[in-house]
Design goal:
Blueprint (H helix, E strand, L loop, with lengths): L4 H10 L3 E3 L11 E3 L1 H20 L4 E4 L8 H5 L2 H4 L1 E6 L6 E3 L4 E7 L2 E8 L5 H15 L12 E2 L26 E4 L3 E3 L9 E3 L5 H5 L2 H8 L5 E10 L14 E11 L5 H19 L7 E5 L11 E9 L2 E12 L1 H10 L5 E3 L4 E3 L2 E8 H12 E7 L5 E7 L10 E5 L5 H15 L4 E3 L5 H11 L3 E5 L1 H7 L1 E6 L5 E5 L3 H10 L1
Helix pairs in contact: 2-10
The protein binds adenosine-5'-triphosphate.
Adenosine-5'-triphosphate binds next to strand 13, strand 16, strand 19 and helix 10.
Organism: Oceanipulchritudo coccoides
Catalytic activity: tRNA(Gly) + glycine + ATP = glycyl-tRNA(Gly) + AMP + diphosphate
Enzyme class: ligase
Protein backbone atom coordinates (compact mmCIF):
# COMPACT_ATOMS: atom_id res chain seq x y z
CA UNK A 1 0.00 0.00 0.00
CA UNK A 2 1.07 3.52 -0.78
CA UNK A 3 1.89 5.91 2.04
CA UNK A 4 -0.11 9.14 2.21
CA UNK A 5 1.70 12.28 1.15
CA UNK A 6 1.21 13.54 4.69
CA UNK A 7 3.05 10.55 6.17
CA UNK A 8 6.00 11.28 3.89
CA UNK A 9 6.02 15.02 4.60
CA UNK A 10 5.90 14.37 8.34
CA UNK A 11 8.68 11.79 8.29
CA UNK A 12 10.83 14.03 6.08
CA UNK A 13 10.47 16.89 8.51
CA UNK A 14 10.84 14.82 11.68
CA UNK A 15 14.01 13.08 10.57
CA UNK A 16 15.65 15.94 8.69
CA UNK A 17 15.20 14.96 5.06
CA UNK A 18 13.22 17.90 3.72
CA UNK A 19 12.03 21.18 5.24
CA UNK A 20 9.87 23.92 3.92
CA UNK A 21 12.14 26.76 2.86
CA UNK A 22 12.13 29.89 5.06
CA UNK A 23 10.07 28.05 7.65
CA UNK A 24 10.82 30.53 10.45
CA UNK A 25 9.25 33.22 8.27
CA UNK A 26 6.15 31.17 7.65
CA UNK A 27 7.50 29.30 4.63
CA UNK A 28 7.67 30.29 0.98
CA UNK A 29 5.35 28.48 -1.42
CA UNK A 30 7.10 26.25 -3.93
CA UNK A 31 10.52 26.18 -2.26
CA UNK A 32 12.04 23.36 -0.21
CA UNK A 33 15.30 22.74 1.61
CA UNK A 34 17.06 19.42 2.01
CA UNK A 35 18.21 18.73 5.55
CA UNK A 36 21.20 16.61 6.64
CA UNK A 37 19.69 13.29 5.53
CA UNK A 38 17.97 14.73 2.47
CA UNK A 39 21.21 16.25 1.26
CA UNK A 40 22.84 12.78 1.41
CA UNK A 41 19.90 11.13 -0.32
CA UNK A 42 19.89 13.72 -3.07
CA UNK A 43 23.63 13.46 -3.60
CA UNK A 44 23.39 9.68 -3.82
CA UNK A 45 20.58 9.87 -6.40
CA UNK A 46 22.57 12.31 -8.52
CA UNK A 47 25.80 10.31 -8.16
CA UNK A 48 24.01 7.08 -9.17
CA UNK A 49 22.62 8.80 -12.26
CA UNK A 50 25.97 10.35 -13.21
CA UNK A 51 27.76 7.04 -12.75
CA UNK A 52 25.27 5.12 -14.89
CA UNK A 53 24.81 7.78 -17.58
CA UNK A 54 28.27 9.36 -17.83
CA UNK A 55 31.00 7.24 -16.21
CA UNK A 56 29.74 3.85 -17.33
CA UNK A 57 29.10 4.94 -20.92
CA UNK A 58 31.79 5.66 -23.49
CA UNK A 59 29.76 8.09 -25.57
CA UNK A 60 28.29 10.45 -22.97
CA UNK A 61 30.19 13.38 -21.47
CA UNK A 62 29.26 15.76 -18.67
CA UNK A 63 28.72 19.49 -18.57
CA UNK A 64 28.08 22.13 -15.92
CA UNK A 65 26.72 25.31 -17.49
CA UNK A 66 25.44 28.50 -15.88
CA UNK A 67 21.94 29.17 -14.58
CA UNK A 68 21.83 32.65 -16.12
CA UNK A 69 22.66 32.72 -19.82
CA UNK A 70 22.44 35.16 -22.71
CA UNK A 71 18.75 36.11 -22.93
CA UNK A 72 18.78 35.49 -26.69
CA UNK A 73 18.99 31.77 -25.88
CA UNK A 74 15.44 31.83 -24.55
CA UNK A 75 14.20 33.57 -27.66
CA UNK A 76 15.88 30.95 -29.83
CA UNK A 77 14.50 28.08 -27.77
CA UNK A 78 10.98 29.46 -27.89
CA UNK A 79 10.68 29.98 -24.13
CA UNK A 80 10.18 33.77 -24.26
CA UNK A 81 7.35 33.34 -26.72
CA UNK A 82 5.82 30.09 -25.61
CA UNK A 83 6.82 28.82 -22.17
CA UNK A 84 3.43 29.64 -20.77
CA UNK A 85 0.70 28.11 -18.68
CA UNK A 86 -2.89 29.34 -18.90
CA UNK A 87 -3.80 31.21 -15.72
CA UNK A 88 -7.09 32.42 -14.26
CA UNK A 89 -7.60 34.75 -11.31
CA UNK A 90 -10.48 34.80 -8.91
CA UNK A 91 -11.58 38.44 -8.74
CA UNK A 92 -13.04 37.96 -5.25
CA UNK A 93 -10.51 35.86 -3.40
CA UNK A 94 -7.45 36.92 -5.49
CA UNK A 95 -6.50 33.26 -5.70
CA UNK A 96 -4.68 32.14 -8.84
CA UNK A 97 -5.22 28.90 -10.67
CA UNK A 98 -3.70 27.07 -13.55
CA UNK A 99 -6.61 26.89 -15.95
CA UNK A 100 -5.77 23.39 -17.08
CA UNK A 101 -5.87 22.21 -13.47
CA UNK A 102 -9.19 23.80 -12.72
CA UNK A 103 -12.30 21.85 -13.60
CA UNK A 104 -15.93 22.64 -14.18
CA UNK A 105 -19.03 20.77 -15.20
CA UNK A 106 -22.35 21.95 -16.56
CA UNK A 107 -25.23 20.78 -14.36
CA UNK A 108 -27.91 19.52 -16.66
CA UNK A 109 -31.40 18.49 -15.64
CA UNK A 110 -33.56 16.89 -18.29
CA UNK A 111 -31.43 18.45 -20.99
CA UNK A 112 -31.47 22.00 -19.54
CA UNK A 113 -28.33 23.55 -18.08
CA UNK A 114 -29.28 24.98 -14.67
CA UNK A 115 -25.78 26.13 -13.75
CA UNK A 116 -22.16 25.12 -13.37
CA UNK A 117 -20.04 23.65 -10.63
CA UNK A 118 -16.29 24.03 -10.42
CA UNK A 119 -13.69 22.12 -8.49
CA UNK A 120 -9.99 22.59 -8.11
CA UNK A 121 -8.47 19.19 -8.58
CA UNK A 122 -9.25 16.39 -10.96
CA UNK A 123 -8.34 13.72 -8.39
CA UNK A 124 -11.14 14.19 -5.87
CA UNK A 125 -13.73 15.81 -8.00
CA UNK A 126 -16.15 13.58 -9.71
CA UNK A 127 -17.93 12.74 -6.45
CA UNK A 128 -17.51 16.23 -5.09
CA UNK A 129 -18.92 17.79 -8.24
CA UNK A 130 -21.90 15.45 -8.22
CA UNK A 131 -22.65 16.38 -4.64
CA UNK A 132 -22.46 20.08 -5.44
CA UNK A 133 -24.67 19.60 -8.48
CA UNK A 134 -27.29 17.76 -6.40
CA UNK A 135 -27.17 20.59 -3.88
CA UNK A 136 -27.69 23.13 -6.64
CA UNK A 137 -30.71 21.16 -7.87
CA UNK A 138 -32.17 21.06 -4.37
CA UNK A 139 -31.68 24.78 -3.82
CA UNK A 140 -33.23 25.71 -7.11
CA UNK A 141 -36.06 23.26 -6.40
CA UNK A 142 -35.65 21.84 -9.88
CA UNK A 143 -37.54 18.66 -10.69
CA UNK A 144 -36.12 16.08 -13.00
CA UNK A 145 -33.14 13.85 -13.42
CA UNK A 146 -29.61 15.09 -12.94
CA UNK A 147 -27.56 14.09 -15.95
CA UNK A 148 -24.04 12.71 -15.96
CA UNK A 149 -21.38 15.12 -14.81
CA UNK A 150 -18.76 15.69 -17.43
CA UNK A 151 -15.74 17.50 -16.13
CA UNK A 152 -13.73 19.65 -18.48
CA UNK A 153 -10.74 21.77 -17.71
CA UNK A 154 -11.12 25.50 -17.74
CA UNK A 155 -9.16 26.01 -20.95
CA UNK A 156 -11.98 24.20 -22.76
CA UNK A 157 -14.60 26.62 -21.50
CA UNK A 158 -16.62 28.55 -24.05
CA UNK A 159 -15.89 32.31 -23.71
CA UNK A 160 -19.61 32.75 -22.97
CA UNK A 161 -19.26 30.50 -19.97
CA UNK A 162 -16.48 32.42 -18.18
CA UNK A 163 -18.96 34.63 -16.43
CA UNK A 164 -21.11 31.72 -15.32
CA UNK A 165 -18.69 29.18 -13.92
CA UNK A 166 -18.41 29.74 -10.17
CA UNK A 167 -15.02 30.28 -8.59
CA UNK A 168 -13.93 27.23 -6.60
CA UNK A 169 -12.77 29.55 -3.82
CA UNK A 170 -15.89 31.68 -3.36
CA UNK A 171 -18.55 29.72 -5.23
CA UNK A 172 -19.71 32.95 -6.86
CA UNK A 173 -20.26 33.02 -10.61
CA UNK A 174 -18.58 35.78 -12.55
CA UNK A 175 -15.59 35.94 -10.26
CA UNK A 176 -13.10 34.21 -12.54
CA UNK A 177 -11.18 36.03 -15.24
CA UNK A 178 -10.82 34.40 -18.68
CA UNK A 179 -7.63 32.35 -18.96
CA UNK A 180 -4.54 34.23 -20.06
CA UNK A 181 -1.02 33.10 -20.78
CA UNK A 182 1.48 33.36 -17.97
CA UNK A 183 5.19 32.96 -18.72
CA UNK A 184 6.86 30.65 -16.21
CA UNK A 185 10.37 32.05 -16.50
CA UNK A 186 11.75 33.99 -13.53
CA UNK A 187 13.14 37.32 -14.67
CA UNK A 188 16.18 38.98 -13.25
CA UNK A 189 18.43 41.92 -14.14
CA UNK A 190 22.08 41.62 -15.03
CA UNK A 191 24.35 44.63 -14.66
CA UNK A 192 23.89 48.02 -13.01
CA UNK A 193 21.27 49.44 -15.36
CA UNK A 194 17.71 49.31 -14.16
CA UNK A 195 16.22 49.41 -17.67
CA UNK A 196 15.20 46.54 -19.90
CA UNK A 197 18.68 46.15 -21.39
CA UNK A 198 19.72 43.93 -18.50
CA UNK A 199 16.65 41.72 -18.59
CA UNK A 200 17.62 38.09 -18.17
CA UNK A 201 16.13 34.83 -16.93
CA UNK A 202 16.84 32.01 -14.52
CA UNK A 203 16.96 28.90 -16.70
CA UNK A 204 13.69 26.93 -16.71
CA UNK A 205 15.56 23.81 -17.91
CA UNK A 206 19.17 22.74 -18.06
CA UNK A 207 18.88 21.57 -21.69
CA UNK A 208 19.62 24.91 -23.35
CA UNK A 209 22.93 25.10 -21.52
CA UNK A 210 23.83 21.90 -23.36
CA UNK A 211 22.72 23.11 -26.79
CA UNK A 212 24.60 26.40 -26.51
CA UNK A 213 27.76 24.43 -25.71
CA UNK A 214 27.31 21.89 -28.50
CA UNK A 215 30.10 23.38 -30.63
CA UNK A 216 32.47 23.60 -27.68
CA UNK A 217 32.04 19.95 -26.83
CA UNK A 218 32.32 18.85 -30.45
CA UNK A 219 35.47 20.90 -30.98
CA UNK A 220 37.21 19.74 -27.80
CA UNK A 221 35.74 16.40 -26.83
CA UNK A 222 36.66 14.07 -29.74
CA UNK A 223 33.07 12.92 -29.88
CA UNK A 224 31.50 10.90 -32.69
CA UNK A 225 27.80 10.61 -33.49
CA UNK A 226 25.97 9.17 -31.62
CA UNK A 227 27.04 10.91 -28.44
CA UNK A 228 25.40 12.54 -25.47
CA UNK A 229 25.97 15.51 -23.20
CA UNK A 230 24.64 15.17 -19.67
CA UNK A 231 24.03 17.84 -17.09
CA UNK A 232 22.67 18.00 -13.55
CA UNK A 233 21.60 21.35 -12.20
CA UNK A 234 19.02 23.75 -10.88
CA UNK A 235 16.06 24.91 -12.92
CA UNK A 236 13.45 27.51 -11.99
CA UNK A 237 9.83 27.84 -13.00
CA UNK A 238 7.38 30.31 -11.57
CA UNK A 239 4.67 27.65 -11.28
CA UNK A 240 1.22 29.15 -10.83
CA UNK A 241 0.18 26.50 -8.35
CA UNK A 242 3.14 24.65 -6.83
CA UNK A 243 1.77 21.58 -5.10
CA UNK A 244 2.25 18.04 -3.90
CA UNK A 245 5.35 18.70 -1.81
CA UNK A 246 8.51 18.49 -3.93
CA UNK A 247 6.63 17.16 -6.97
CA UNK A 248 6.00 20.61 -8.41
CA UNK A 249 8.14 23.36 -6.95
CA UNK A 250 9.49 26.66 -8.22
CA UNK A 251 13.15 25.80 -7.74
CA UNK A 252 14.18 22.24 -8.52
CA UNK A 253 16.94 20.20 -10.07
CA UNK A 254 17.04 18.36 -13.35
CA UNK A 255 19.20 15.60 -14.77
CA UNK A 256 19.13 15.93 -18.53
CA UNK A 257 20.86 14.36 -21.50
CA UNK A 258 20.87 15.57 -25.05
CA UNK A 259 21.70 12.53 -27.13
CA UNK A 260 22.82 13.54 -30.61
CA UNK A 261 22.11 11.17 -33.46
CA UNK A 262 22.24 11.21 -37.23
CA UNK A 263 19.18 12.61 -39.02
CA UNK A 264 18.40 9.33 -40.76
CA UNK A 265 14.69 8.59 -40.27
CA UNK A 266 15.51 5.05 -39.23
CA UNK A 267 17.72 6.05 -36.33
CA UNK A 268 15.50 7.95 -33.94
CA UNK A 269 12.78 5.33 -33.33
CA UNK A 270 15.42 2.81 -32.25
CA UNK A 271 17.35 5.26 -30.05
CA UNK A 272 14.08 6.53 -28.57
CA UNK A 273 13.07 2.99 -27.53
CA UNK A 274 16.54 2.30 -26.15
CA UNK A 275 16.35 5.41 -23.99
CA UNK A 276 12.92 4.55 -22.63
CA UNK A 277 14.28 1.14 -21.60
CA UNK A 278 17.54 2.54 -20.21
CA UNK A 279 15.64 5.05 -18.09
CA UNK A 280 13.34 2.38 -16.70
CA UNK A 281 16.27 0.13 -15.87
CA UNK A 282 17.98 2.95 -14.04
CA UNK A 283 14.90 3.59 -11.90
CA UNK A 284 14.84 -0.09 -10.98
CA UNK A 285 18.57 0.02 -10.21
CA UNK A 286 17.98 2.61 -7.48
CA UNK A 287 15.20 0.58 -5.90
CA UNK A 288 12.03 1.78 -7.63
CA UNK A 289 9.82 -1.23 -8.35
CA UNK A 290 9.16 -1.71 -12.09
CA UNK A 291 5.44 -2.11 -11.46
CA UNK A 292 5.20 1.46 -10.12
CA UNK A 293 6.57 2.84 -13.39
CA UNK A 294 4.37 3.31 -16.45
CA UNK A 295 4.70 4.68 -19.98
CA UNK A 296 2.53 7.52 -21.16
CA UNK A 297 2.94 7.97 -24.91
CA UNK A 298 1.89 11.45 -26.01
CA UNK A 299 -0.63 11.28 -28.86
CA UNK A 300 0.62 12.76 -32.16
CA UNK A 301 -1.86 15.66 -32.05
CA UNK A 302 -0.48 16.88 -28.71
CA UNK A 303 3.16 16.99 -29.84
CA UNK A 304 4.84 20.27 -30.70
CA UNK A 305 5.48 20.77 -34.42
CA UNK A 306 9.13 19.75 -34.26
CA UNK A 307 8.65 16.72 -32.02
CA UNK A 308 8.61 13.23 -33.47
CA UNK A 309 7.58 11.52 -30.27
CA UNK A 310 7.43 11.92 -26.51
CA UNK A 311 6.95 9.29 -23.84
CA UNK A 312 6.68 10.08 -20.17
CA UNK A 313 7.73 7.51 -17.65
CA UNK A 314 5.11 7.86 -14.95
CA UNK A 315 5.23 6.87 -11.31
CA UNK A 316 2.44 6.03 -8.90
CA UNK A 317 2.78 8.87 -6.39
CA UNK A 318 0.53 9.06 -3.29
CA UNK A 319 -1.62 11.62 -5.17
CA UNK A 320 -1.89 9.63 -8.40
CA UNK A 321 0.07 8.49 -11.41
CA UNK A 322 2.08 11.38 -12.84
CA UNK A 323 5.06 12.25 -15.01
CA UNK A 324 8.45 11.45 -13.57
CA UNK A 325 10.73 11.38 -16.62
CA UNK A 326 10.11 12.81 -20.07
CA UNK A 327 11.83 11.23 -23.08
CA UNK A 328 11.42 13.45 -26.13
CA UNK A 329 12.58 13.22 -29.72
CA UNK A 330 13.16 16.85 -30.60
CA UNK A 331 14.52 16.45 -34.13
CA UNK A 332 17.08 19.18 -34.83
CA UNK A 333 14.82 21.99 -33.68
CA UNK A 334 17.04 23.40 -30.92
CA UNK A 335 20.35 23.38 -32.78
CA UNK A 336 18.69 24.82 -35.88
CA UNK A 337 17.21 27.62 -33.81
CA UNK A 338 20.57 28.39 -32.20
CA UNK A 339 22.24 28.39 -35.61
CA UNK A 340 19.66 30.89 -36.80
CA UNK A 341 19.86 33.20 -33.78
CA UNK A 342 23.62 33.02 -33.15
CA UNK A 343 24.63 32.79 -36.83
CA UNK A 344 27.17 30.14 -35.85
CA UNK A 345 27.13 26.83 -37.65
CA UNK A 346 25.78 23.93 -35.62
CA UNK A 347 26.74 21.39 -38.25
CA UNK A 348 28.64 18.29 -37.38
CA UNK A 349 31.04 16.64 -39.80
CA UNK A 350 30.36 12.92 -39.77
CA UNK A 351 33.69 11.22 -40.58
CA UNK A 352 32.03 7.92 -41.39
CA UNK A 353 29.49 9.36 -43.81
CA UNK A 354 31.77 12.12 -45.05
CA UNK A 355 28.99 14.64 -44.77
CA UNK A 356 27.86 17.55 -42.68
CA UNK A 357 24.54 17.77 -40.93
CA UNK A 358 22.80 19.24 -37.90
CA UNK A 359 22.31 16.25 -35.62
CA UNK A 360 18.91 15.24 -34.30
CA UNK A 361 18.40 14.69 -30.63
CA UNK A 362 16.67 12.41 -28.14
CA UNK A 363 16.26 14.07 -24.75
CA UNK A 364 15.66 12.14 -21.52
CA UNK A 365 14.77 14.76 -18.90
CA UNK A 366 14.36 13.80 -15.26
CA UNK A 367 13.64 15.83 -12.14
CA UNK A 368 15.91 15.08 -9.17
CA UNK A 369 13.23 16.09 -6.66
CA UNK A 370 10.52 14.01 -8.32
CA UNK A 371 12.92 11.07 -8.27
CA UNK A 372 13.45 11.60 -4.56
CA UNK A 373 9.71 11.70 -3.98
CA UNK A 374 9.41 8.45 -5.96
CA UNK A 375 12.24 6.86 -3.97
CA UNK A 376 10.62 7.90 -0.67
CA UNK A 377 7.18 6.68 -1.78
CA UNK A 378 8.55 3.31 -2.84
CA UNK A 379 10.68 2.91 0.29
CA UNK A 380 8.12 3.83 2.95
CA UNK A 381 6.79 0.85 4.93
CA UNK A 382 5.08 0.24 8.21
CA UNK A 383 5.24 -3.17 9.88
CA UNK A 384 5.48 -4.86 13.27
CA UNK A 385 8.59 -6.36 14.80
CA UNK A 386 9.30 -7.77 18.28
CA UNK A 387 10.76 -5.18 20.67
CA UNK A 388 13.49 -5.82 23.30
CA UNK A 389 11.03 -7.76 25.42
CA UNK A 390 9.66 -9.76 22.51
CA UNK A 391 6.34 -7.90 22.31
CA UNK A 392 5.18 -6.73 18.87
CA UNK A 393 5.93 -3.10 18.15
CA UNK A 394 4.98 -0.93 15.19
CA UNK A 395 7.82 0.47 13.18
CA UNK A 396 8.22 2.80 10.24
CA UNK A 397 11.02 1.99 7.87
CA UNK A 398 12.45 3.31 4.65
CA UNK A 399 13.56 0.38 2.52
CA UNK A 400 16.06 2.38 0.53
CA UNK A 401 18.29 0.62 -1.93
CA UNK A 402 21.78 0.75 -0.34
CA UNK A 403 22.93 2.86 -3.32
CA UNK A 404 20.75 5.79 -2.27
CA UNK A 405 20.50 5.26 1.52
CA UNK A 406 21.92 8.31 3.38
CA UNK A 407 23.85 6.01 5.72
CA UNK A 408 25.01 2.62 4.44
CA UNK A 409 25.64 1.26 7.92
CA UNK A 410 25.42 2.24 11.59
CA UNK A 411 27.94 1.22 14.23
CA UNK A 412 26.96 0.83 17.90
CA UNK A 413 28.91 -0.08 21.01
CA UNK A 414 26.51 -2.14 23.14
CA UNK A 415 26.99 0.19 26.10
CA UNK A 416 28.22 3.75 26.05
CA UNK A 417 29.96 3.73 29.43
CA UNK A 418 32.37 0.86 28.70
CA UNK A 419 35.50 2.41 27.16
CA UNK A 420 36.73 -0.91 25.64
CA UNK A 421 33.45 -1.30 23.74
CA UNK A 422 33.38 2.31 22.63
CA UNK A 423 36.98 2.22 21.49
CA UNK A 424 36.59 -0.94 19.45
CA UNK A 425 33.34 0.35 17.89
CA UNK A 426 34.97 3.69 17.17
CA UNK A 427 37.82 1.97 15.32
CA UNK A 428 35.40 0.07 13.13
CA UNK A 429 33.41 3.27 12.56
CA UNK A 430 36.53 5.11 11.42
CA UNK A 431 37.55 2.21 9.18
CA UNK A 432 34.15 2.04 7.44
CA UNK A 433 33.95 5.81 7.12
CA UNK A 434 36.77 5.76 4.62
CA UNK A 435 34.38 4.05 2.19
CA UNK A 436 30.88 5.10 3.16
CA UNK A 437 28.76 7.50 5.11
CA UNK A 438 28.39 5.72 8.47
CA UNK A 439 26.08 6.48 11.40
CA UNK A 440 27.25 6.38 15.01
CA UNK A 441 24.85 5.97 17.89
CA UNK A 442 25.65 5.19 21.51
CA UNK A 443 22.48 6.17 23.30
CA UNK A 444 19.51 4.09 24.36
CA UNK A 445 18.69 0.41 24.21
CA UNK A 446 19.84 -1.40 21.09
CA UNK A 447 16.21 -1.91 19.98
CA UNK A 448 15.62 1.82 20.05
CA UNK A 449 18.77 2.45 18.09
CA UNK A 450 17.66 -0.09 15.45
CA UNK A 451 14.31 1.66 15.17
CA UNK A 452 15.97 5.01 14.60
CA UNK A 453 18.09 3.61 11.79
CA UNK A 454 15.08 1.79 10.25
CA UNK A 455 13.25 5.06 10.04
CA UNK A 456 16.04 6.76 8.09
CA UNK A 457 16.65 3.74 5.89
CA UNK A 458 20.08 2.52 7.05
CA UNK A 459 20.38 -1.00 5.59
CA UNK A 460 22.73 -2.48 8.24
CA UNK A 461 23.58 -2.00 11.92
CA UNK A 462 26.76 -3.42 13.46
CA UNK A 463 26.96 -3.90 17.23
CA UNK A 464 30.16 -4.43 19.22
CA UNK A 465 29.48 -6.31 22.47
CA UNK A 466 31.54 -7.88 25.28
CA UNK A 467 32.04 -11.12 23.36
CA UNK A 468 33.62 -9.12 20.55
CA UNK A 469 36.40 -8.04 22.84
CA UNK A 470 36.63 -10.84 25.35
CA UNK A 471 35.80 -13.95 23.35
CA UNK A 472 35.27 -14.27 19.64
CA UNK A 473 36.31 -11.04 17.90
CA UNK A 474 32.92 -11.23 16.16
CA UNK A 475 30.18 -8.61 15.76
CA UNK A 476 26.44 -8.75 15.19
CA UNK A 477 25.11 -7.34 11.93
CA UNK A 478 21.40 -6.75 11.75
CA UNK A 479 19.44 -6.40 8.50
CA UNK A 480 16.92 -3.54 8.29
CA UNK A 481 14.27 -5.31 6.22
CA UNK A 482 14.27 -8.81 7.71
CA UNK A 483 15.58 -7.77 11.18
CA UNK A 484 17.67 -10.94 11.01
CA UNK A 485 21.06 -10.93 12.68
CA UNK A 486 24.29 -12.64 11.75
CA UNK A 487 27.52 -12.89 13.66
CA UNK A 488 30.70 -12.47 11.69
CA UNK A 489 34.37 -11.80 12.47
CA UNK A 490 35.21 -8.15 13.01
CA UNK A 491 37.87 -8.17 10.31
CA UNK A 492 35.37 -9.43 7.72
CA UNK A 493 32.82 -6.68 8.29
CA UNK A 494 34.03 -4.37 5.56
CA UNK A 495 34.11 -7.12 2.94
CA UNK A 496 30.71 -8.42 4.01
CA UNK A 497 29.17 -4.96 3.69
CA UNK A 498 30.97 -4.25 0.44
CA UNK A 499 29.39 -7.26 -1.24
CA UNK A 500 25.93 -6.12 -0.22
CA UNK A 501 26.25 -2.39 -0.71
CA UNK A 502 28.20 -2.27 -3.94
CA UNK A 503 27.33 -5.72 -5.28
P1 LIG B 1 4.51 19.46 -16.08
O1 LIG B 1 3.66 19.18 -17.30
O2 LIG B 1 4.28 18.52 -14.92
O3 LIG B 1 4.57 20.90 -15.68
P2 LIG B 1 6.64 19.41 -17.91
O4 LIG B 1 6.14 18.43 -18.90
O5 LIG B 1 6.61 20.85 -18.18
O6 LIG B 1 6.00 19.10 -16.49
P3 LIG B 1 9.35 19.03 -18.53
O7 LIG B 1 9.50 20.37 -19.07
O8 LIG B 1 9.28 17.86 -19.45
O9 LIG B 1 8.11 18.98 -17.54
O10 LIG B 1 10.50 18.81 -17.44
C1 LIG B 1 11.26 17.63 -17.37
C2 LIG B 1 11.25 17.04 -15.97
O11 LIG B 1 11.60 18.03 -15.00
C3 LIG B 1 9.88 16.54 -15.53
O12 LIG B 1 9.66 15.23 -15.98
C4 LIG B 1 10.00 16.60 -14.03
O13 LIG B 1 10.65 15.45 -13.52
C5 LIG B 1 10.88 17.81 -13.80
N1 LIG B 1 10.08 19.00 -13.46
C6 LIG B 1 9.47 19.84 -14.32
N2 LIG B 1 8.84 20.83 -13.66
C7 LIG B 1 9.06 20.61 -12.35
C8 LIG B 1 8.69 21.31 -11.16
N3 LIG B 1 7.97 22.42 -11.18
N4 LIG B 1 9.09 20.81 -9.96
C9 LIG B 1 9.83 19.68 -9.91
N5 LIG B 1 10.22 18.99 -11.00
C10 LIG B 1 9.85 19.45 -12.21
Amino acid sequence: TLPTLEALVTLCKRRGFIFQSSEIYGGYAGFFDYGPLGAELKKNVKDAWWKAMVHERDEIVGLDSTIIMHPEIWKASGHVEGFNDPMVDCKESKKRYRADQLFFAPVRVDGNTIGYVSVEESGTMQAEAEEMAAEMKRKQAVQGTLEAIELKDYTEADPEEYELIPSPATGKPGSLTPPRQFNLMFETRVGPLADASGLSYLRPETAQGIFQNFKNVVDTGRVKIPFGIAQIGKAFRNEITPRNFIFRSREFEQMEIEYFIDPDEETWPRVYREWIDTCKEWLVSIGIPADMVGEDVHPAEKLSHYSKGTTDLTFTFPFGTQELWGIACRGNFDLTQHQKHSRKSMEFFDEGRKEKYIPHVVEPSLGVDRTILAVLTAAYCEDEVPNDKGAPEKRVLLKFHPKVAPFKVAVFPLLKNKPELVESARNLYKQLQRRWNVAWDVSGAIGRRYRRQDEIGTPYCVTIDFDTIEKDQCVTIRDRDTTEQVRIPLDEVEGWLNERIEG
